[in-house]
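EI: anyone free to look at a 562-residue chain?
SC: sure, send it
EI:
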Amino acid sequence: MPVSRDPHLTVEYATPNLRQIESLSGKRTFQPERVIGCPEPTTTTSIYSDISSEAESDLSTSTNATRSSRESDSSHGSRDIKRRHKHVFHQQTPKEPLLQFRYLVIVCLYLGPVCSGFLVGLLQAFNLAYSPYYSLEQPFPNWSIHVIFFSGLGSSLLLGIGLCFGKVKLLALVAVLQFLSSLLILFSTTSWWMVHVAEVLCGVSIGIHVPLQQIVTAESLSAFRRASIGILSYILVHLGILLAHLLSSVIVVQALAIVNLVALILNFLSSGFAHPETPRFHFDRVERSKCVNALQWLRGKSSDIGFEYEELAHNLSILATPSFNRRERLNSLIKSRSVYQPLLTSVTILILSVACGYLPITFLFITNFHLSVPKLDEDLRNLLLISNVLAPCIPLFLIDRLGRKLLLLISTALMAVSMTFLALLAHMEPDITLFQVKYTAIVASAVFLLSFQVGLGPLAWILAMELIPGSLLPWAVPVVSSTWWILGLVFTLTMRPVFDTIGVPGFCTIFAVVSGLTYGFVLEWIPDYREVSLEEIERFFRKYDQRKLTLDISSATERNVA
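SC: here you go
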């Protein structure tokens, strides 16, 4: 926020924006000296010890400049008012020399989702171009997808160990794994074992990166930007896949691998050295000064972080009570609804996002409903890749207005309707590949796929990572993430046998029922919130424990009175 321009403002706090808020609203704002657990408290809070002197000097400079401008206006007339006021406003805006550098670091950090998608697209393009066993007529899903799912499942099970040592730094490990995978693609035109190792490394990195990117986004960004940046990360993954497929048709895969290597180097430097760890990570490790520095870096040097720090400290101090220590954590999981309800909600929403049938319908769509004797339709595949980038842009701009719950309800309702229509169409005409009904089926499946990308696709992982209590992340995230990978692997392994048994009508009927169940689950169990902090979400679920505690105290009091 800019420094106040009122020269008659009295100095009471360390940060000018607090003084400006009080002078305009007449309400008493948060006092920095009341920050819970702030290191080395003095007469003015230590959170602002690094910026208070600079802020007050900026304020005095702007005050003197304003007074001099007023005297000059009275002596020289009003014809130069606009020029002098513009100069004064430029002087009193706080300068941040590292502001552009901070933006550059954040942009390089979010190159990670693009590189992940680009690597997946490179592997697919490389197999299509060079593999003698991989062709447009190869059965779907192929062995490469199975390898990625197996590797992603293995890395997701070990993700909790990495979360104990760092979250942003773990993104640097993802960049290293993807760098090695791209390097193997660069030199694997004659050695197919390199391609298989590259697929394994790709799956391992994606198994870590998919949940970790949403965790870092949720813990680093403010409540007003968290959802939109989370959706943007999802879009960037699909943008990388699209770019790899489009560019591989005009540029050799080896050249594209070099481009990916350069982008991964920038991402590694950003996540490994320049970008700070999340404030929650530092606070959990009782590194409060680092927590303050990280929070100030993320919000900007002139931003007020007092209230946000106090909210974080108050919430984590509650979770640090004896009922949440390691010895009694399992017992608290069984008894505390504020723990098991968000955890079960996260697991369920990811299960439903896989079980709704997006992956099987995708294979039916790009093979023109010829899954038994598959032949890839490149035009439909490119159309699907483009829609995967454009469709999530709708929730990107509407998430703050409509909220997560309404978008999920719209998405799942459209999915259920389109699958019901496709199931009825398949029951009336068993041979859905006939010319009379084929294009109607393609349109219905396209509506289903677009509806998934408007809500359930980008929001499932965002909701799952937001709802998990922060103190339980190291062991809850592997449980939630591995569930998604296990179901995805089961679907890819059993898709062909199940399709040969029940056909398109049975497929569509099952997915229509699951989409309807997802609608009911979202309506009943997903909380409706927007622009709230993670601490407020945890307080929302803790109200159940507070009600139970109140009832227990009331019943005990009644027994004592009796």
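EI: Confidence is low (pLDDT under 50) at residues 1-98, 132-140, 548-562.
SC: 👍
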